[in-house]
Specification:
single chain, mainly beta
Length: 43
């Protein structure tokens, strides 16, 4: 897995979607979900 910043992700034509327990990366050109991961809740 490669760590990327939000700027790098959006520069590649994707958007980041967060909900209460997950993080999604969607390709805006094709409409495909290209990444998913758990959302970490820091205390």
């Amino acid at each position: 897995m490669q760590l990327m910043s939000a700027d790098q992700i959006t520069d590649h034509g994707c958007c980041i979607i967060l909900d209460s327990d997950s993080c999604y990366v969607q390709d805006l050109h094709m409409g495909l979900l290209v990444g998913i991961g758990p959302r970490r809740q820091d205390s």
